[in-house]
Amino acid sequence: MAAVTLTNVVKRFGVLEVVHGANIDIADGEFVVFVGPSGCGKSTLLRMVAGLEDISGGEIAIGGKLVNDVEPADRGIAMVFQSYALYPHMTVEQNLSFGLRMNGNPKADTERRVSRAAEILRIDELMQRRPKQLSGGQRQRVAIGRAIVREPQVFLFDEPLSNLDAELRVQMRVEISRLHKELGTTMIYVTHDQTEAMTLADRIVVLKGGNVEQIGAPLDLYDDPANRFVAGFIGSPKMNFLNAKVVGTTNGAATVELVNHDGARLRKPLCEALPAVGAEVVLGVRPEHFREKGEGDCDIAIKADVAEHLGSVSYVYANAGPEELIIEREASRQRASGDHFTVSIKADRSLLFDKAGARIR
Amino acid sequence: MSSLSRSRLGRSILLHLFLTPLALIWLFPLWMMVVFSTMPDNGIFSPGIELLPHDGFLDNFNNLQRDTNFVGAIGISVSVAVTYTVLSVLLTSMAGWALARYEFHGKGIVVAIILGTITLPYAVVLIPQFIMVARDFQLANTWIALIVPPLFNSLGVLFMRQAFSMMPAELFDAARVEGVKEWRIFLFVALPLARPMLAALAIILFLASWNNYLWPLLINSQPGAMTAPVALGTLIGLTKVSWGGIMAGAVMLTLPMLVVFVLLQRHFIAGIAAGAVK
To answer: Which of A272, B19, B83, B170 has the largest CB neighbor count within 10 A?
Structure first.
């Protein structure tokens, strides 16, 4: 087990800079998830930790040791790839033991490690099969097994569940979580799926365009996002953003007018510097934080375009001018497309952002 | 029978009606080669076409052996072709691997030069190559002269480069993370995965060496150093051509290739078609 520290890490491909000085401290035994949309640099960052990509600037330390110029094999890491990367011409057993055999590891120790990994992942019966004879979930187990046999200080996962169907993804998510508890090893996990990030991580690193937007515990990011991007990225369905204008500031609160909702106004208490009157702002409300008419601090009337009833909850999709709203209701099976109804926003369950996307607290 | 099966059967019959005559046209010269190899020289040019083999193959072969030591020449051909194929497959796949999987300065230029050599007609290379091998290195009438000059095969390099480029990079990254040395990754991961392409390449290279006539004729023209096609060529004299012997030799040169192709055709087709679909 080992801590991982990234200090001002930069990655350039030619003149194009794709990671702009990432600073991340990962504690020993922690499960950290890098999350962000495609092209945000999360996989590049992971590959730099693995040593599969050169570092253009900054430092990476694993277990307190600078590893910038250390070969991947000597970093004490093991990696699980999105495509599983199993050797198709080898059996499961050969896949698991390949690295150890190639490095001249004693036979008895190799066998011990392979059987331990097989036992942990419950793949004992698959040992003589080849990858093409395995299901997606079984292949992913073998890929994880191959990482386990290395007995690494740090596990690296590069979108390992992306190729699985929804049901299997949930199952494997639980397995990976269980594995982390069982092994207690530091794990860095890359995904674009915020649900995976929320459910697996001790801490989440949100990336966008090569920049670290925020680092924090899943619920901290959900409750207290640093900016509009994080607020929109964390949470499913994503947060609603309503265009607004500051129309007054009094007693530590800003009153905003929702420009696409017939001038509906909301008084939002703030603890930092108040925005200027007339400033354009954005009010963020999560789909699950809308209340029934009159239960909040500001009512808005909407027309349902589409209603999705999932059983325990329903999602109502509504367009209000240029804004598309998603409203989650626990008991609104009666809502149908075309319905007109009113929902209410509570000031303490909404967030305010300036035009640039920075949070106004 | 469903209409779908009927239409499939109809298509199959039509296809066979079209392709069978083409196959017969293609096979006819080969069959006549077999027939001629069993006939005496004067019988070959007698009026009328004989379609069935006679019993003179051994006579023709004995004449061939007496005049050219054909068995010895076949031995040289086999040894040269096998050695050349093994070495060339190894070298071209190593070059293809390097060009497909490593980044280095001047890589684009190297690829361009390799591509450029394909456009050079062999006739342009032949004389300088002969002067270099025969005069400068004094290697005429040796196996090295037959094997080494054609070892660098630019088409083979590009073929293997393509084969390795199509393999998922993550496989090799996974091995690197596991601490597997680069040459072992090449040997134990990349090469086994390239088996169909290697088989196709091996057949092509073996054929090229087996059928090569011009270069061996120039560089290894002494008796005892000749390959089988060159030895066969010596039967074409100014005053007499031993057609029966030539045909018997041609049959013996063709048969091994047919056997090799039939044995490896599955790999060959897979290798040629590789990359055609995702």
So the answer is: B170
Into how many domains does chain A fold?
Answer: 2
**DSSP-derived secondary structure for chain B:** --HHHHHHHHHHHHHHHHHHHHHHHHHHHHHHHHHHTTS-HHHHTSSS---S--S-HHHHHHHHHHHH-HHHHHHHHHHHHHHHHHHHHHHHHHHHHHHHH---TTHHHHHHHHHHHHHS-HHHHHHHHHIIIIIIS--TTSHHHHHSTT---HHHHHHHHHHHHTS-HHHHHHHHHTT--HHHIIIIIIHHHTHHHHHHHHHHHHHHHHH--HHHHHH--STTT--HHHHHHTTB-SS-B-HHHHHHHHHHHHHHHHHHHHHHHHHHHHHHHTTS--
Nearest chain B Cα to A78, which residue? B177
The tens place of each residue's pLDDT in chain B, 278 residues long, gives 677 788 889 999 999 999 999 999 999 999 999 999 998 888 887 787 888 888 888 988 888 888 888 899 999 999 999 999 999 999 999 999 999 999 999 999 999 999 998 888 888 889 999 999 999 999 999 989 999 998 888 999 999 999 999 999 999 999 999 999 999 999 999 999 998 889 889 888 998 999 899 999 999 888 888 899 998 888 887 677 888 889 999 999 988 788 877 777 777 676 655 544 43
Query: Is there a single domain that holds both residue A214 and residue A318?
Result: no
| CB pair distance less than 8 Å for A89 and B180 | no
Residue B82 falls inside a structural domain: yes
B contacts of A82 (beta carbons < 8 Å):
170
Q: Do A262 and A205 sit in the same domain of this protein?
A: no
Chain A positions in Cβ-Cβ contact with residue B188 (cut-off 8 Å): 98, 102
pTM of the model: 0.81
Structural domain boundaries, residue B80: 58-273
Residues A218 and A262 in one domain: no
Question: Are residue A91 and residue A29 in the same domain, yes or no?
Answer: yes
* Same structural domain, A250 and A219: no
User: Considering the domain boundaries, does residue B155 fall inside one?
Assistant: yes
ipTM of the complex, rounded to two decimals: 0.82
**B173/A52 CB distance under 8 A:** yes
In this structure, what CATH number is given to the domain that contains residue B67? 1.10.3720.10
Q: How many domains does chain B have?
A: 1
- Domain holding A135, by residue range, is 4-233
Measured CB to CB, residues of chain A less than 8 Å from chain B are 50-52, 71-74, 77-79, 81-83, 85, 87-89, 98-100, 102-103, 146, 150
